[in-house]
Design brief:
The complex is a heterodimer of chains A (about 250) and B (about 450).
Chain A (H helix, E strand, L loop, with lengths): L1 E10 L5 E10 L4 E5 L6 H9 L4 E10 L2 E2 L5 H7 L1 E4 L11 H15 L7 H14 L4 H5 L8 H15 L3 E5 L7 H13 L6 E6 L3 H5 L4 E6 L2 E6 L1 H10 L2 H7 L1
Parallel strand pairs in A: 3-8, 3-9, 6-7, 7-8
Antiparallel strand pairs in A: 1-2, 1-4, 4-5, 9-10
Chain B lengths: L10 H13 L7 H17 L14 H4 L12 H10 L9 E6 L2 E2 L6 H6 L2 E5 H5 L18 H9 L2 E7 L9 E7 L5 E9 L4 E10 L6 E9 L4 E24 L4 E22 L5 E10 L4 E10 L5 E10 L4 E10 L7 E10 L5 E10 L5 E9 L3 H9 L4 H20 L2 H16 L2
Parallel strand pairs in B: 1-5, 4-6, 5-7, 6-8, 7-9, 8-9, 9-10, 10-11, 10-12, 11-13, 12-14, 13-15, 14-16, 15-17
Antiparallel strand pairs in B: 1-2, 3-4
Classes of the chains: A alpha/beta (about 250), B alpha/beta (about 450).
């Protein structure tokens, strides 16, 4: 589903190189975790996949279901099935959450040549998804993410993810800012979306999240490269020994 | 010192003098009214059209903009007016009463006079009153704009208009649209007097439609808001036109009364919406909103002066401007608080969103406070679309143009929604979308 080949990327503004040759293949049905110390390039990788133009690709390619994803605009990537759950979901004053959800869902449907959702069908889907994630109708009436707590923002991200039904979900530090209960709700929401047709890349600093969302493969990212790949036990090892070994290995 | 040195008149000014000479015999009014017209023309002769060296017009140089001045529009053809009313309905299915003015003259036959009468609203032809004993009072200039050049231009040429009296305690059940139709070429000058009686309430819609390519439109709205009365005025200055749109509000607010206004602008090449607001009774409130969209190399100016002349009044001024192309936006807002006007509360904010590198916004909020126990604040911001917001929306599959529309709409809606006339909110938001789609 996702093939990243020798990906190099730098910050467009000051040309600082962040990704220095990332190779990663994720197949349908798999959940991959990417772990790494601060500054290793985890968030950059997620932004580059989503198409943020603060970054410049200097080398390598990214194929999404065989198509060159780097040539696509962010909205085209989304319509093709890419979803990034933001580490810091953005507050958008004046844009009602429901209006936003409807616009996003219908924009993607339109891009794929599908009909717009009827209002009752849309409402039914939102209510069902909101119910699972403990998102109140009151939250949905507010402007998008405005005044939401950290936990509410993350739940709103997962709500969007379940409504948009992406093929590839990239979760950027979804556990940050969550207490134990919120972590469980969010993880349950993510686990519900696991399916043989869908792939997930879970980016996290801590092993904690991976107790809830159990990965098939764990990678260690350090200084812009994947320096170690293993199974879920690798995460436990990292939790015990820290990243020191890998930081040195990449140097 | 050199006040006696005659100025060199522009083409437009010469045209205006000619316009006056050829129209003076037909312009309505008593002897006193004629004297006011003469004085206004004299002022124009002495000072010229308002220009950038006049402080109030520093950013909106009408003299430089007006290359010529068309004659006043001749009387409108009724069938043409009807066709325009049908074609250019700015409020769609909204149930409302209508008062029609075409080419500067009141048309009672097309106005809902009888229905309005049952609601306690009387409509009188301005020209009848101008010829009467108190005619000159109807042309009184704003207190804080005695020598305003645009108002003087109006006084000189006012062709007609209406006086709208709302009876004491009357709560008019539907909005009243005061629609001014340009049914042929030529300039238009109108004056509207609205007297809201004690405890009355009314929502006015002020619109300008028709084909107005070559003449300036100059309209003065003078509101007397009696004690405990509520008046809302939604003014739409929309549509592409190459000539100037010059609109003036004079509001005099009694005690425990409320005045709300929204000036909504999109389209004209040169538009100025100026408001002179004066509290004369205590415990009253004025909420003044502006929503401006301006593109190409057009100019849109929202100017206001709020006079807290008495204690215990609140005013809120909230203006939003979106600029594109090489457009210029102007906001000048001044709150004056007189020495004895204690416990005044004024809160002024102007915000601009620039969609292009070449657009420019002049924000000039001012406070002039002589009382010592007041709460007054002002603020001004100018910025571009937040790239992070845009990226977030695009990452959810919303194409760039649509995402920008959402963000601009969100920006402007804040003022439309705070204004809070739910009858028109949806229609105005649709007009914002239309404007964005055409840019």
């Amino acid at each position: 589903m996702l093939e990243i080949k020798n990906l190099h990327a730098r910050i467009a503004e000051d040309e600082t190189e962040i990704l220095r040759g990332v190779n990663l293949t994720v197949n349908s049905g798999e959940v991959h975790a990417i772990m790494g110390p601060n500054g290793s390039g985890k968030s950059t990788l997620s932004y580059v996949l989503a198409g943020k133009d603060d970054y410049e690709i200097t080398e390598g390619e990214v194929l999404f279901n065989g198509e060159n994803m780097l040539d696509m605009d962010p909205d085209e990537r989304a319509a093709a099935g890419m979803f990034l759950a933001f580490q810091y979901p953005i507050e958008i004053p004046g844009v009602a959450t429901m209006e936003f959800l409807k616009t996003a869902m219908n924009a993607q449907r339109k891009a794929r040549g599908e009909d717009s959702l009827s209002i009752p069908d849309f409402m039914k889907r939102v209510k069902a998804a909101a119910n699972h994630l403990n998102v109140s109708m009151d939250m949905l009436k507010r402007p998008l993410n405005v005044g939401f707590s950290g936990g509410e923002k993350k739940r709103a991200e997962i709500l969007q993810m379940s409504l948009l039904e992406p093929k590839l979900c990239v979760l950027d530090e979804t556990d940050s800012g969550l207490d134990i209960d919120a972590l469980r709700i969010v993880s349950d929401g993510v686990n519900k979306l696991r399916s043989p047709e869908r792939a997930m890349v879970v980016i996290t600093h801590y092993q904690r999240l991976l107790d809830h969302i159990v990965p098939d493969v764990v990678h260690v990212l350090s200084k812009g490269r994947i320096v170690k790949t293993g199974d879920k036990d690798l995460a436990l090892e990292l939790e015990k020994n820290g990243y020191a070994d890998y930081v040195d290995a990449a140097a | 010192m050199n006040a006696s040195v005659p100025i060199k008149h522009t083409q437009a000014e010469s045209d205006l003098f000619e316009r006056y000479e050829s129209a003076r015999e037909t312009l309505a009014g008593s002897v006193a009214v004629s004297a006011l017209r003469e004085a206004a023309v004299d002022q124009l002769r002495d000072r010229g059209l308002p220009h950038r060296r006049v402080e109030e017009y520093k950013y909106s140089d009408l003299r430089a903009f007006m290359k010529a001045a068309a004659p006043l529009a001749a009387a409108a053809e009724l069938s043409r007016v009807q066709a325009i009313l049908e074609d250019q309905d700015l409020f769609g299915g909204l149930e409302r009463y209508r008062i029609v003015i075409a080419n500067g003259s009141y048309l009672p036959t097309l106005s809902d006079v009888d229905a309005l009468a049952t609601e306690g609203v009387t409509v009188t032809n301005l020209n009848d009153a101008l010829s009467g004993e108190h005619g000159a009072q109807l042309l009184a200039p704003p207190k804080s704009g005695q020598n305003d050049g645009v108002v003087a231009l109006n006084t000189a040429f006012v062709q007609g208009g209406v006086i709208v009296d709302v009876a004491e305690g009357a709560a008019v059940s539907r909005p009243v649209e005061l629609v001014q139709v340009a049914a042929s070429s030529g300039a238009q000058a109108t004056r509207i007097k609205v007297r809201a009686g004690t405890g009355a309430s009314l929502h006015l819609l002020e619109t300008f439609i028709g084909d107005t390519a070559d003449g300036e439109v100059n309209s003065v709205f003078d509101y007397d808001i009696a004690d405990k009365a509520h008046l809302a005025a939604t003014r739409l200055i929309v549509g592409n036109c190459d000539s100037a749109r010059l609109l003036t509000t004079i509001a005099t607010i009694g005690a425990e009364a409320e005045f709300r206004s929204l000036g909504f602008m999109a389209g004209p090449k040169f538009a100025r919406n100026q408001q002179f607001i004066n509290f004369v009774g205590e415990n009253s409130e004025a909420k003044i909103y502006g929503v401006t969209m301006v593109g190409r190399d057009d100019l849109a100016d929202q100017t206001l002066i709020v006079d807290h002349a008495v204690p215990h009044c609140n005013s809120r001024e909230f203006f939003k401007t979106v600029l594109d192309g090489r457009a210029k936006g102007v906001y000048q807002g001044r709150i004056n608080v007189a020495q004895h006007a204690q416990k005044s509360d004024g809160e002024m904010m102007t915000q601009a969103l620039l969609l292009s590198e070449e657009a420019e916004m002049a924000n000039k909020p001012e406070l002039e406070i002589f009382a010592d126990d007041v709460i007054c604040a002002h603020g001004a911001t100018s910025g571009q679309i937040d790239e992070d917001l845009l990226f977030y929306l695009r990452a959810r599959g919303i194409p760039e143009a649509e995402a920008k529309t959402l963000l601009v709409l969100a920006f402007l809606s804040e003022a439309i929604e705070e204004y809070g006339e739910d009858d028109v909110t949806e229609g105005l938001e649709a007009r914002v979308r239309d404007w964005l789609a055409s840019h």
